[in-house]
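Appendix B, record 7
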Amino acid sequence: MKKTAVIAEDHTILRDGLRSLLSQSGEFKVIGEATDGIEAIRCVAECLPDIILLDLSMPKMNGISAIKEIKKQSPQTKVLVLTIHRDEEYILTSFQAGADGYCLKDARFDEVLNAMKMILSGKTYMSGEVSAKVLAGYLEEKKAIKSVSTWETITQREKEILKLIAEGYKSAEIADILFISVKTVNKHRSNLMEKLDLHNVSSLTAYAIEKGLVSDQRF
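C-alpha cells (predicted):
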C-alpha cells in the first residue's frame, strides 16, 4: 500500500517536480500541496498524511513554526525538511521543533526517497554533510556555551509577526493570518521595536532579511 505525502513548497517548479517523481516511484501518493506555512498546517490537518516534505523558507509562516503546529495537529505525520540551508542553527532548530529528517535541496531524488522511507521506519535522517554524531555533540555544546543575544530574546510569535511585517502585511492582515487580535499584533510589534531598537517598517524588514526570515528577492 502506498504511503501518503504532502508537499509544502512555494516554488511551483520544485513542487511539480517532486510530485511527478514521487508518483513515478510507485511508493508514494501525493494527497495535498501547500505554498506557505499556514496552508501546510491546514493541509496536514485535513489530509493526515504519513509524511510531509517541507521547505523552511515560505511565505506567511516559516517552516520552523509550521513544523511545531503540524506536530500538534497530526503527531503521527513525519516531517522531512527539504531546504537549501546548511547552517547548524537551521538544523538544530528544525529538530527541536519536531522534524524527523533534514535533507538538502541539491540532493538527488533517490536520496530524498531514501530519507522518506527511513524516517517512516522510525529513524532520523540527515543529509551526508551533517552526521548524527556531529549533531548530538553540537546540541550539547550549544546548551553549554550558548549566550543570550538580542535575537534570542525574540519569541517565536514575535518572529512570525516580524516575518509578516517584512512581507508587507498590515496589522489587521497579520491578525487574520495568525488568528489573533489587532491589539495583540500591535503589542508584539511594539515589543519588537523596543527589543531591537528599530522603529520603522523598513528597518524591521532589513533586520528580517539579515536573519533569513525573508528573502531580499521574491521569485
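Remarks on this record: The longest helix spans residues 182-196. The chain has two domains: 3-144, 151-210.
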